[in-house]
Amino acid sequence: MDIGLVGLGKMGNNMRQRLRNGGHTVVGYDRNPDVSDVDSLQAMVAALPSPKVVWVMVPAGDPTRQTVAELGDLLGEGDLVVDGGNSKYTDDEANAELLSAKGVGFVDCGVSGGVWGLDNGYALMCGGPDAEVAKVQPAFDALKPEGESGFVHAGKKAGAGHFAKMVHNGIEYAMMQAYAEGWELLEATDLVDDVPATFDSWRSGTVIRSWLLDLLVNALEDDTHLEKLSGYADDSGEGRWTVQAAIDHAVPMNVIAASLFARFTSRQEDSPAMKAIAAMRNQFGGHAVHTEPPAGGDAHGSLG
């Protein structure tokens, strides 16, 4: 099939190559002329035969909304837009309505696979009417991993794909947090001599084996005690959206919520909340508190 691809960053560029490897014709557009096949969005649309299919891989929020709106002015009856970025699922309904008024179809698709997707394939979770999904199915088939799994038409309503991807990322937060806490505990004891080898041993025959575990082992092979990294973990938004959706639907999500808040803790050099807890523990039980050393003196381990 012929397909337009907007956004040729790390993911988009590799997706373009995997689609081409699968025998499809891709016209890619990016604001960076060094990676773009054409010099404008208009030129990309003009290069596609009708009915036209355009896949959008730009940052979530305003960049995606603006791109979808611009495509709505360039495309026509029977054409299709696929939003494959990390958009919030609530944006999809508005984008679908905007395009529908112009006779243009819309499919939302959560994409997972990162920089490894070119070789391994991408897990795809899409939402939209059957007829619209069918128009882009050849591209889905080329992008997905080999085998039966790796693709799902999650639902016919706009947003189903991105909602599924959001929950996927929430689970990812919790799994990473569990591995990280286990690593910290192993590092904290003098009983285990080889922490990287211990993690590596879990990669076969255990119930906690996973690709995330493989990636952590790779990181530990490069930096045994992770001394080259700072203890700061960002979040891309999906964790927050997952927890908010859990609140909206009254679904208890203790572990995923805790993993999200742990990332916020990582951004504090000296946690204000922990200061308050230390102060209260000292007040009610005389527990030790730790203070910065006075000029020319030693740090105090306790009061009084």
From TrEMBL:
6-phosphogluconate dehydrogenase C-terminal domain sequence ranges: 161-294
One Gene Ontology term from the biological process aspect of the record: pentose-phosphate shunt
Record flagged with keyword Disulfide bond: no
The keyword Oxidoreductase is assigned to this record: yes
Gene3D superfamilies associated with the record: N-(1-d-carboxylethyl)-l-norvaline Dehydrogenase, domain 2, NAD(P)-binding Rossmann-like Domain
Key words, A-Z: Gluconate utilization, Oxidoreductase
InterPro entries: 6-PGluconate_DH-like_C_sf (IPR008927), 6DGDH_YqeC (IPR004849), 6PGD_dom2 (IPR013328), 6PGDH_C (IPR006114), 6PGDH_NADP-bd (IPR006115), NAD(P)-bd_dom_sf (IPR036291), Pgluconate_DH (IPR006183)
GO molecular function: NADP binding; phosphogluconate dehydrogenase (decarboxylating) activity
Pfam families membership: 6PGD, NAD_binding_2
Organism superkingdom: Bacteria
Entry similarity comment: Belongs to the 6-phosphogluconate dehydrogenase family.
Listed name of the protein: 6-phosphogluconate dehydrogenase
